[in-house]
Write a structure and sequence with these properties.
Layout lengths: L1 H5 L6 H8 L2 H16 L2 E2 L7 H5 L7 E5 L24 H14 L10 H4 L3 E5 L4 E2 L11 H15 L4 E5 H5 L11 E5 L4 H4 L9 H11 L8
Parallel strand pairs: 2-3, 2-5, 5-6
Antiparallel strand pairs: 1-4
Protein name: Uracil-DNA glycosylase
Function: Excises uracil residues from the DNA which can arise as a result of misincorporation of dUMP residues by DNA polymerase or due to deamination of cytosine.
Subcellular location: Cytoplasm
């Protein structure tokens, strides 16, 4: 599991190290080690912290909050809603790309790999960073949520003018961790078909709104 930490961008370590030293996180690591030893789990061990690999603390200007990694083979690689190159796009990601097309007239992409967003300062953060294969939610309530809640609080406390995109009921609850006086929060239904088909996703224009807010704050917009 040492590789798990090695990939984290150095800029995060002063903020995260204190969490790594807490008893709950030590228990979490023991659980994750056991799960990866005895079961097929995702993402691969060295990609668990990928959100913090491709998006440095200094560069973070947008935060998208997911819930669980994808639990199908080859899908998850440590960035919420993202899949590896060559993998079929899950339904939520399909609807994200459709909204971007409608909002910004950016053609639907071939690849569902969102590393290109992360490299521009979009933190693609799942609340739970690991999952057992084909068992959605299997690693929830083991400590990951405590860790990722702390990440959100650190960003809220230490930065300003970050755009938080809260999609769906689960993500919307995270607003309690965010100082809305110094950050921007955009709420919407979840991009999953269940929500999107009921009219709670399409037309939210979160991608153009995010870029407008970033430009208002003197920051470079995201090339979605």
């Amino acid at each position: 599991m040492i590789r798990m930490y090695a990939a984290i961008d150095e800029s995060w370590k002063p903020y995260l190290q204190k969490e790594f030293n807490k008893p709950y996180f030590e228990d979490l690591v023991s659980f994750v080690k056991s799960e990866y030893k005895h079961h097929e789990c995702f993402p691969p061990c060295d990609e668990i912290f990928n959100a913090f690999t491709h998006c440095s603390f200094q560069d973070t200007k947008v935060v998208i909050i997911g819930q669980d990694p994808y639990h199908g083979v080859g899908q998850a690689h440590g960035l919420c809603f993202s899949v590896n190159d060559g993998i079929a796009h899950p339904p939520s990601l399909v609807n994200i790309f459709k909204e971007i097309d409608q909002d910004l007239k950016i053609p639907y992409p071939k690849s569902g790999n969102l590393t290109r967003w992360a490299n521009q300062g979009v933190l693609l953060l799942n609340a739970t960073l690991t999952v057992r294969a084909h068992e959605a939610g299997s690693h929830q309530r083991k400590g990951w949520e405590q860790f990722t809640d702390e990440v959100i609080k650190i960003i809220s406390n230490e930065k300003k003018d970050v755009v938080f995109l809260l999609w769906g009921g689960f993500a919307k609850k995270k607003i309690k961790l965010i100082d809305t006086e110094k950050h921007y929060v955009l709420n919407s239904g979840h991009p999953s078909p269940l929500s999107a088909n009921r009219g709670f996703w399409f037309g939210n224009k979160h991608f153009s709104k995010t870029n407008f807010l970033l430009q208002q704050a003197g920051k470079k917009p995201i090339v979605w």
